[in-house]
Amino acid sequence: MKRRISNKQNKNLPPSPPTLPFIGNLHQLGSIPQQSSWQLSKKHGPVMHLRLGKMLTVVISSAEVSKVVLKTYDLDSCSRPTLQGARTLTYNFQDLAFAPYGEYQREIRKICVLELFSVKRVQTYRSIREEEITKMINSISHHSSSSSPVDLTKKMFALTASIIFRVALEQVSKGVTLIITDLMKLSGLRQRREKVFRDLDAFFQSVIDDRCSPWRTKRQQDDIIDVLLKIVKEQTGFGAALLTEKNIKAFLLVNL
């Protein structure tokens, strides 16, 4: 019975190299997967499928076929895989990056273009960028005067993180940086993933609660959370998509 079901499911799949139990074709990818895939395609054709562990993947190695896939069948291939990790961390795909293509994804993208990342909105954050760049230059100058080495990679990463945090959260938070660092170290263990999710959820909720507080001091310019909360409060409902606090937290997770 199991073999019949398996054969029925696989009968329409493109050609594939021989697989091994559990790992599938992982052993054939090598250290440079794109080159290994190209070599395999010479034998198995421009359209083939590989099993990466239990994940089935279709590999396209032809410009002509790629054009067909990305143009003719664009709607069938423009959504990301529904991975459990992404599902957990994005509140069931409520963000922009992992949301499946459809009405919700189009409306969220419209909000980003018109409300969050418009030229006018980006210009309002110019003072933040200038302040953070000045801080970095002063720090490098200080190291130069003392003849001490400077790790420019770390400086640029810190600059980018500071600007993003201030634009999105109105502050530079070392706490969320540590949580994000833990997120990048995830090894696929469910418990660690859920712990990171709980920590991030609690942090984002505290930031949102602070924005909603009637005693909060009004600032001259709104950050990203302020803009999104205004949309939630007005509930204008961009099309069929109504924003909630979960949407805001999912958006923050991906953009931070």
Automatic annotation (TrEMBL):
It holds the Pfam family p450. Keywords: Heme, Iron, Metal-binding, Monooxygenase, Oxidoreductase. It comes from the Eukaryota. GO terms for molecular function: heme binding; iron ion binding; monooxygenase activity; oxidoreductase activity, acting on paired donors, with incorporation or reduction of molecular oxygen. Its cofactor is heme. The keyword Heme applies. Gene3D superfamilies: Cytochrome P450. PANTHER family: CYTOCHROME P450 71A9-LIKE ISOFORM X1 (PTHR47955:SF19), CYTOCHROME P450 FAMILY 71 PROTEIN (PTHR47955). Belongs to the cytochrome P450 family. This is Cytochrome P450. It comes from Ficus carica (Common fig).
